Amino acid sequence: MAASVLKQALSLKNSQFFGQAVVNQPVSSTTSGRLPACVSIRASGYEEELVKTAKTVASKGRGILAMDESNATCGKRLASIGLENTEANRQAYRQLLVTTPGLGEYISGAILFEETLYQSTLDGKKFVDVLISQNIVPGIKVDKGLVPLSGSNNESWCQGLDGLASRSAAYYKQGARFAKWRTVVSIPNGPSELAVTEAAWGLARYAAISQENGLVPIVEPEILLDGEHSIERTFEVAQKVWAKVFYFLAENKVLFEGILLKPSMVTPGAESGEKATPEKVAEYTLKLLKRRVPPAVPGIMFLSGGQSEVEATLNLNAMNQSPNPWHVSFSYARALQNSVLKLWGGQPEKVEAAQKALLTRAKLNSLAQLGQYSAEGEDAEAKEGLFVKGYSY
Ligand code: 13P
């Protein structure tokens, strides 16, 4: 066995968590040696590492901080607190998030936008190193956003497959170990057969390419909250979407033990006038997942999709009242960041208070992952809905 291969094998074996493996050795050295191919060669020698990464991200009592807003979306967030969309302001906000003391107790992974992956703190520490030092695995949004899908009913498709292999290799080199690709399915606009097939195929191609380059793919077909439909209709559409996603994932020989899912919860449409209890959301969502997701998949990390902070936490808690075949946790952006951003308001003297707010939200979601959360004591702001019609990421 070549020395570099042995070095990687030992570092993987000796570390309980993937995050520690990265801390213990320079990232570049993990790219030099590859493990010998196992039975399934689809993931190109990264199988063992992919499985470990996925398990670390899906570790007990922890979930993902999604902070991968594109520059345009981040600009909208900054505008909501009266700040200009400059690189300096985006850096300042992201520095606040990644340097929150103690964050790694509740957060296992952070999804970054490309700009953030290459940014550093003002005193010169790479964001990725700051995350790794807290045992938080850095991840990267790799899709290139949504564009109109011609031939459909005003639906969209997700771009980003061109050049994805070389971009993924570069992200791995920079320290990313998982990836995210968000595509959407709209219920009011159909969804058409074409849009669902396109969404599922794109996710599967992305997942295969990510695994070949050492990144655990987060598979995210978001079924948008927009619409007046019932919870039953969401359930019906979600079954169809996930059936296709898994069909194409298998066709593309994706290693299920080395992926993570990021579904939307099964709820009534945001404009239906109906409000489902956390128990009802949990019942429908778990029924869907049990019918469609093999137990080989290590983790299901929900998006918040415009739910209020409290609602997203309550729903997650309801899903963890009895054992599940997979780790059921969170990968929230809006439902983790909303109060934090408002509290900060761009003021340096508020950084500490905002970090405390982030830690609190992360801790409450950690409790929900363990099925031990209660909404007692939550303030009114955390209960405010965050739904925005036609939201883009
Ligand atoms: P929200 O939790 O705001 O829906 O974000 C989802 C997402 O895909 C972020 O990565």
Per-chain topology:
Elements: H1 3-14, H2 18-24, H3 27-32, H4 47-57, E1 63-67, H5 71-80, H6 87-98, E2 107-112, H7 114-117, H8 127-133, E3 137-141, E4 146-148, E5 156-158, H9 164-174, E6 178-185, H10 193-212, E7 216-223, H11 231-251, E8 260-261, H12 278-292, E9 299-302, H13 309-319, E10 327-332, H14 334-344, H15 351-369, H16 380-383
Parallel strand pairs: 1-2, 1-10, 2-3, 3-6, 6-7, 7-8, 8-9, 9-10
Antiparallel strand pairs: 4-5
Helix pairs in contact: 10-11, 11-12, 12-13, 13-14, 13-15, 14-15
This protein binds 1,3-dihydroxyacetonephosphate.
- Give the end-to-end Cα distance, rounded to a whole number of Å: 45 Å
Please give the largest β-sheet. Answer: 8 strands, parallel, barrel
State Rg: 20 Å
Number of helices: 16
Looking at CATH, the homologous superfamily is Aldolase class I
Report helical residue fraction.
Answer: 40-55%
Label the structural class. alpha/beta
Shape: globular
Order of helices and strands: HHHHEHHEHHEEEHEHEHEHEHEHHH
**Regions with little confidence, pLDDT below 50 for 5+ residues:** 1-41
